[in-house]
Design a protein that fits this description.
- The structure holds 2 protein chains of 2 kinds.
- Chain A has helices at 17-43, 56-79, 92-111, 117-131, 137-158; strands at 2-4, 12-15, 88-91.
- In chain A, α1 runs antiparallel to α2 and α4 runs antiparallel to α5.
- By secondary structure, chain A is mainly α.
- Chain A has 2 domains: 17-86; 92-158, no CATH class.
- Chain B has helices spanning 2-9, 12-30, 36-43, 52-77, 86-97, 101-135, 139-155, 161-176, 201-219, 243-265, 270-285, 297-313, 315-321, 327-338, 347-350, 352-381, 388-407, 410-428, 433-456, 468-506, and strands at residues 178-179, 186-187.
- The longest helix of chain B has 39 residues, at 468-506.
- Chain B is globular, with a radius of gyration of 23 Å.
- Chain B has a two-stranded antiparallel ribbon.
- Chain B contains 20 helices and 2 strands.
- By secondary structure, chain B is mostly helical.
- Classes of the chains: A mainly alpha, B mainly alpha.
Amino acid sequence: MSNNENENKGRTFTLTESKADLVLGVFFLVFSLVLLFAIIPSQVMDVGKGFPNPRSFPNFCGYAMLVLSICMLYQSYRKRGKQGGETVTFTSRGIKMSLLALAVLIVSVVLLQFLPYIPVTIALLAGMMLLLGQRNKFVIAGVSIILPILVYVFFTYGLKLVLP
Amino acid sequence: MLGQGFLTILMPGNLIYLVGGVALGLIMGAIPGLTATMAIALLVPLTLYLSPTQAITMLLGAFNGGTFGGSIAAILLATPGTPAASATVGDGYAMARQGKAGKAIKTALVSSVFGCLTACVLLVLIAEPVAQYALQFGAAEYTILMLFALTIIASASGDSMVKGLMAGAVGLLFGVIGMDPVETIPRLTFGALKLSSGIDIVTMLIGSLALSEILVQIESFHKRKQGALLPPPSCPDDDKFTRKDFKRTWKTMLRSALLGSGIGALPGLGSSLAAWVGYDAAKRASKHPEEFGKGSIEGIAGAEAANNAVCGSNMIPLLTLGIPGDVVAALIIGAFMLQGLTPGPMIFREAAQDVYNIYAGVMVSNIVMAIITLLTVKLFTKISKLQPNVVLPCVCMFCIVGVYALNSSLFDVGIMLAFAVIGYFLQKFHFPPACMLVGFILSPMLEKYFRTAMQMSRGSVSIFFKNPLDWVLWVITAVSLFTILRGKYKRYKAAKAAEKAAEAPAE
């Protein structure tokens, strides 16, 4: 990985194609082993030795992932040291923005369990617009108040669907 | 009788219900999370007060409009409004980002109308023999058909077959979650009762395609100057579906329409699968397959012609055999029964004129859909002029509300957010999302038919080789796999040759 300081973007992390395949290969190798030897035996009841049985298809998926993860690790080995190819880039600021947006969504969903739809959605829209850089108060107020009310009326009275 | 059917449909009292059905279907299809199925479910109780012609044509208009409407959100917002529009997202949104949103929507419209009309012609001319062909498909034949459909995963995997197959395996695994189809025991539900019925495809689509795309866009927000969501068209032709576009796509539309009609005539498959099969067929037959996923007009034409063809051909098993092919057809059977009609072979004797009125209604619904869309397309494309920091939060809100409305469950919304994170990483690490979606769609069907066939044959695989039809399907599957692998091998050799040529001067 290479770390570059950049005042506008924060730190940038770049994975070469070989490194990305290595990370993915290891991840899926571990995941498929956990799936085959821990998750499936505990989450799928054993109803007998016949084929096919409830475990057959999940096991097929697990073994397919295992084989493919080994292929990925082999690809990573073959590509090591080679230039070009697809890179995977993350910037610290970008990740922070995405995490904040996701956090706003998660908090909204949690609040919908306790509060009604309209106030939560007003807060969601206003919060997301501010996060994404909208600073016009009229646009923020207008969109975040009018749209949830319109949607509420359409769903409740038009479609007869109950919102939280 | 068909002529009389058209005259009946064009009477104002019948036409108004058809137009209302199409309009409602378009609106609900365009809003992520609200599907054509939901539109029909809401309209069925209203049909009690209507005549058979008014009732059924309104429902079919809603189905047709909803199936097409999903492509509008797919093109403008990278959010498939309905599962059937998932195959349109890649090329549709790419075209929109090139300033060709108007062209993309009009291509989808023309293809949808073409597809549905083709299926309607088949419905009128050869419904009976097609229905008899559908009857020959048993569990074994469906299994082989699913295996053929799995080759789409390899075809859609792009440059990295391993990543595509991995995404497909992940999709197959997600499709397993829920109750075992034969033993009825929970699998991979981790004790969550709400997962017993599996993961809803709409929840997964919206999370892994729409919300993940929003997260990726937010990540790169600070890097770009704030402007409109989508660029404006660079020339007038970018807003039109020209004669040149039609010349380029008519064969694709016809091929996909026939494929979609065949798939729609088989109970249990649906418009989502038809869209992907149509898209895949278009890619393989195209002179420029490398453009697919980057804004290919043929990609949109292939997917949309196939998925709307299902709207017409869905009626084949319904009317001729009384077998509902999917949830929509089951709802329509309910509407038939409310009218005192029983779909099946006898309906052609007991209510022949009503049947021809329905045929005419489906055909006219395409014209109505085209008129409504052309009148409102400018309104839709105005969305592209809005700022992303206003549009993206609104799309997030619609995603949450739409998914909640499916089952009135915040748990589904939580699953959607989980898929948003999964889809985000898939995109960042260059996994093709299409492969995961196809795997997810096929997983329950493949397992159900395979295990049913094995039960019928008491564990013997000879059931998959008994009929001539089985051999035909195996040959088609083998040819499909061979052409994909040959194409990949050719591209690999070309890439190797280019690498050697680049290294040679350095030596």
